[in-house]
Amino acid sequence: MASTVWKGHLTFGLVSFPVKLYSAARSESISFNQLHKTDGSRVRQVLYCAAEDKPIPRTEIVKGYEYEKDRYVVIEDEEIKKVAPQTAKVMEIQEFVKADAVDPIYLETSYYMAPDEAGEKPYALLFDALKKSGYMGIAKVTMHNREHVVILRPGANGVLMHTMYYNHEIRKVDEFRTDLSLVKEKELALAQSLVEALAAEFEPDKYQDTYRENLLQMIESKKEGRAIVATPEPRQGKVVDILEALKASLAVAKKPAASARTSSPVEEIKPAKRKARG
User: Fold this and answer.
1) How confident is the model at residue 263 (pLDDT cuts 50, 70, 90)?
2) What is the pLDDT of residues 38-67, one digit of tens each?
3) Do 125 and 161 sit in the same domain of this protein?
4) What pLDDT, in 10s, does the model give residues 103-159?
5) Other beta carbons less than 10 A from residue 140's beta carbon
6) Phi/psi of residue 49, nearest 5 degrees
7) Do 192 and 158 reside in the same domain of the chain?
8) HSE-up of 219 (CA within 13 Å, CB side)?
């Protein structure tokens, strides 16, 4: 199990029990170090004091809030702890809402919630109640120097928690409108048929990060001195007749599906020709 990111008590009504949170997911990407082009050595960032015109160690760094241009008030970690709200230690469920009432755009980060010692029974009770009622809990919790509104929902084996964006953090785009008067009945019927033809069970294992895989294979190829073959440009034909395009798409969708994964360009790499020695 991953390391605990929060420990405290969860309360709903007069029921209170200890819980702990673990990160449920994390993004993965290929990271690169910065090197000096001329000699290939690692470049490191230096903390630099502009007033004294010299580099300084991390031990001399403090937090500062800029309240006016170039004017700061210094904030100590202990001072931040003093003003932390009660939700830093107690997560209180404030209300329950129907699962389909929350727009997914509000969901931010996912966590596993597990019962801490002596909290197994009330935890199991909450999990079962959420699962059978179709409701999700709305609560507040403070962690990572921020108070979050969170959703508690039943997963396959336990309670999951999702932090939410506040309403003012959701970008409202007034220009984003859809003119349904442009849609014709025949086109809609074909589009719905295409959706049905492509319908499948949700299986997360089917989806792979091709870009990450290609990068890893490209790195391996460079280590071994093999040539790199560029990814072919995608073919994108201009849509002239939507109805005909839908018919053609439907015909293709009804054929037996090919493998979802295509060979990446670096899988077709051939050894680079070595220069003849003089």
Assistant:
1) very low
2) 999 999 889 999 899 999 999 999 999 999
3) yes
4) 999 999 999 999 998 899 999 999 999 999 999 999 999 998 899 999 999 999 999
5) 16
6) -95, 115
7) no
8) 9
Picking from 143, 168, 193, the residue at the C-terminal end of a domain is 168
Is residue 152 located within the same domain as residue 255?
no
Query: Structure pTM?
Result: 0.74
Q: Which residue, among 208, 81, 193, 226, has the nearest Cα to 142 in the 3D structure?
A: 81
* Burial status of residue 47 (CB atoms within 10 A of its CB: 0-12, 13-18, 19 or more): exposed
Whether residue 232 sits in one domain with residue 118? no
Provide DSSP, 187-222. Answer: HHHHHHHHHHHT-----GGG---HHHHHHHHHHHHH
Quote the domain boundaries for residue 198: 185-268
Taking the C-alpha atoms of residue 4 and residue 24, their distance in angstroms, rounded to an integer, is 11
Name the token pair of 128.
Answer: 């079962």
Query: Which pLDDT belongs to residue 171?
Result: 86
> Is residue 91 located within the same domain as residue 220?
no
Q: Does 278 fall in a domain?
A: no
Cα–Cα distance for residue pair 171/155, rounded to 1 Å: 29
